[in-house]
MTAP family purine nucleoside phosphorylase (Methanospirillum hungatei), 224 residues
Amino acid sequence: MLGIIGGTSLLDYKGSELSKFEQNTPYGTSELFKGDGFLLLLRHQNRCAPHKIPYRSHIAALKLAGAEQIIALGSTGSLREDIPPGTRIIPDDFVSLAPIPSIYNHSIGHANPMFDSYLRSHLANLCPDAKKGGTYIQTCGPRLESRPEIIWMSQLAHVVGMTIGSELTVAHELNLPFAAICTIDNYANGICNAEISYDSILKTVRENQEKTLELLNHIIESVS
């Protein structure tokens, strides 16, 4: 069973019958959609901002509902001029500037989260035009990054987002192989002197929505 995490635009997916249900976990309750051979989770359910997303509940809900591996679809900003909006990237490492949640709050445990190589290869086959490899840097959100911050981040990473590092870490702690494919929806603040706002990002997300739904369909067909 494949767990798929994405944004609210995935609600427009029409390729399969989905049944909605709530999954209780030790960390809270998360809403899931079940299809033929897959589970779909919308990370921003209940209009959660990135720094308020209940990552432990979400990932635990997928596992308890039967997911054996997870693919996440994410929206990111480019930190490089040669990675323009519209590009897709399959990251192979990450850096986090934000606090990362953990299930090890009442026990001692150490995680070394890594993107799963098999799932990364699977995504590369499904999306051959995607850039293979790259570093994802996670910030806390919901604010956008300042220009000096972006200049510094561009020395470390290729794309910036607010969710994938947390999802990867909790999935690793729960022994769920995890990979992500990210769509570049904008240049980060100051790259190519682009002016960035929340409204401009939403506009580009909507423009890329059809491509995202097409990719989702390819992912689902590969496991159905």
The chain is about 30% helix and 25% strand. The longest helix spans residues 209-223. The mean pLDDT is 90. The radius of gyration is 16 Å.
